[in-house]
Each structure stands twice: as structure tokens, then as C-alpha cells.
Amino acid sequence: MNATERECLELQLLEMEMLFSMFPNKEEIVLEDTSSVLRVQRYLEGICESLPPRLDFSLYLKTEASSIKLQMHVSLPHNYPKAEPQLFVRSSALDRQQQNILNKSLESYIMSLDRGELCITNAAQWLQDNISSYVQSAKPSEEAESCVDEITDTFHRMWIYSHHIYRQELRKKILDCAKRLNLTGFCLTGKPGVICIEGLKGQCEEFWRDIRYPNWKHISCKHTDSKQVTGNLDAVRLFNSFEELQFAAHGDYGLRNDYHMDLGQFFEYLKQRKSEHIFQILFGIEGKS
User: What pLDDT, in 10s, does the model give residues 39-54?
Assistant: First the structure.
């Protein structure tokens, strides 16, 4: 552990202490991994040698003036506050366009702050001070409300193939990114690796941009489906959530655990979801149970 890494993690723990004191109720701050803070502490104390997971949590905020409720999802890179935190805000008081504008404004605000300074408490305060300006105060007319019902979204599904998916950090990034963007589907770990995501097209494309980074070779999007949907997207989803899949493996080749997934089990999984045709698209061969 170098000095910069230690300094960043120590500052993150300091900020978590401040946040817990500012938001003392359990429902106000929720850790995705309840042991994550303790694991960072043990790592800094030298009790645990492996690098701890990121600190990922959600802050549930409420403005006093307008009683608007917000959820701010926070993901802290190991080198935060030297690097920017990943923040994403949701609220039932905002439509999709308002939410996008708010998140872009929050991003600009964070970028305006000095790097190296803790900023999650600042972000929470900024949201509480500014959220009302992003909510339309005027009640829409009946005509406008009827138009809302006619709005269509582009539903998108992507089938992604990788030579393998092993590393715990990468697997966590895939799960976290899918959850943040409200995508459903799965990630098949091992060799080969397969990812399916479905949801709004823009969010699928954001997921694809986020997980593709220079060091990940042999990854490609093999197939996509898109359709215009009016109303609830859940009606056209194949999956109810985003999950990680692991099937029985064949072989164990040394330290890398270079094992091959049982593709027969994977074919059955696709068949249950009426997607067996994807097997040949992914692997170039017909699937068999």
C-alpha cells in the first residue's frame, strides 16, 4: 500500500464517519456491502492484505421546504478524493429528462470542486438546496398528461461475449453498473464470459461504454435487439433482475483456474427464457442440452 492510497482510504473513512453522524437513521444511509467500512479499516491496519472493495452506498435525502425525496447513489474509487466520486441521483418527483439534467448539473458541480477535498457532504447539501429548481412546479394540463401516456421509449437488449470473466473487481463493476443504470440480465462468469443487458437504450449504451476499458481485450457485442415501447418496460424484459451466473466447470489449469463453463447448462438457461437462438450467435455452433 503506497502513501497516496493510504491517505485516500483514511479520508474516505473520515467522510463516512461524518455522514453517519449527519444521517443517523438506518434508512438515510445504506451500504451495499455492510462490511465494506470494516474491511477498509482492517486493510489500513494491516490485518487484511487484499485490497478492500469500493465503498458503495446510497443516501436518502429529503428537502425541508418542498419535502422532495431523493436517492443519491455513491461509489468511491480507491483513489477518491484524488479522483472524482461516481454519483447518480433518482427521485420520483423528476421525470427522465429532469433527472438527466440534474445529474449533469451535479457532475459539473463536483468537477468544479478542488480534487483532493472530500465532497459527498457538499453534494448532498447542493442537492437539497437546488432540487426544487429541477422540478416543474406547474401542474400539467389534461392534454399534456394524455401526451405523457403516449411517450415511447426505445427498449434495448445487448448480448456481449468475452473470452473470459474471472476477476472479482471486474465482476463487481459489472454488477454495480447494471444496478446503477436499472438494467436487467445476467453475467456468466468463467470461460467464456457472456453478458446480457436490457433496459433503456441510452442506459445500455452507457453500460457498454463504462465496462469497456483499454485493458479488456477480446470483448465484443455479438447481437442487439431494439423496439419502441409505450408504458411499462417490464412487460418486454426477459429478466426480472441482473444476476451473476456460474455453472459447473470443466478443468482446472493451474493458478489461473482457467476453467470452461458447462455450455449445456447455459443453453438450458437460454432455452427457459426463449432465447436459445442466441447460443449460435454467441458461439457459432448449435446449442445442445
Answer: 999 999 988 878 888 9
- Cell of residue 87, nine digits: 454519483
**Domain limits for position 36:** 3-134
Residues 193 and 116 occupy one common structural domain: no
Grid cell listed for 125: 447539501
Domain boundary among 100, 134, 168: 134
Per-residue pLDDT reduced to its tens digit, 184-195: 999 999 888 999
What CATH number corresponds to the domain at position 30?
A: 3.10.110.10
Report field, pTM of the whole predicted structure over 0.90: no
Q: Rg (Cα) of the chain, in Å, rounded?
A: 22
157 and 105 in one domain?
Answer: no
Say how many domains are in the chain: 2
Residue 278 CB partners (closer than 8 Å, separation 6+): 159, 223, 270
Q: Decide if 218 is inside a domain.
A: yes
Nearest-angstrom CA–CA distance, 257 and 43: 26
For residues 279 and 267, give the distance between their C-alpha atoms in angstroms, rounded to a whole number.
7
Residue position matching grid coordinates 443516501: 59
HSE of 287 in the Cβ direction (CA atoms, 13 Å)?
Answer: 21
115-126: per-residue pLDDT in tens? 888 999 999 989
Helical segments of the chain, H only: 3-22, 36-45, 96-112, 120-130, 142-150, 168-180, 201-211, 263-272, 277-283
What's the full length of the chain, in residues?
289
